[in-house]
Amino acid sequence: MEHPHQTLQPQPPQTLPTPRMLVPDVARGLMLWGIAVANVTTAWVLFAGGPASMTGRVVNDSFWDKLTIMFTTSFVHARGFPMFSTLLGFGVGLIAASLYRRGYPLPKARGVIARRYGMLAIFGALHMVFLFWGDIMLAYGLIGLFMACLIAVRTKVLLWVAGTLFAVTNLVALAGVLLLEAVLGAGQLQELLGGGSSGGLLPITSYWSVLLNGLIVLLGSFLGVPLQAFMLLPLMLLGFVLAREGVLADPARHHRVLVWLAGVGLVAAL
To answer: Where are its TM segments located (predicted)?
Structure first.
């Protein structure tokens, strides 16, 4: 279903309301639960050293601590990013499709999406400074602004861009890890990747140190958004295409696509 946003002729009004899709709501709820659980041990309840201190800590060689850490490492930590990215792109696609059906001109449609995700970026910046330095909404908002420029691009082009970015990002990451392992050795590399502090750049001794940490990370985030875009944009584009093509709105028609996506996602998750 190719309908780039360029013509945008008004469509006949629908007589029946479109039923709400439950799958994105369920996925969003699971994702937010996972992010909250992951942040408990990496940002909110911190442990100074000890085995697995970044994922909850093992106390007195507890079997239950180890089992919990194994579960959360497998199914919680860093698992929210792919879902969040896909759902955010899916949301952009739903908004673009709604504006298309209502006959919005392309510039006006882009403006609506840009305002919405510009507000998300502003909210993310405030959240990062005043509450939590590990905020990700700023990056998603800024990338959402960029996606407003892509709503008229054809589906095949978007999929090619997403696939290329995904492949390049993973190849560069793999090359970087192999290079670091060759230079540092496997043991030191593992310590570097898994033993950092999660409390921010500076020790948290007061709320003023929270604000200072947030400001430092905010400035760094603007410089890091292009790098984050390589990781986040491919799945955001995939989510956008899923919404544009109505994959979740009509799962019976897109059964083969859904099975293929489930298989690829399962392999990637493992």
So the answer is: 30-47, 80-100, 120-153, 159-180, 216-243
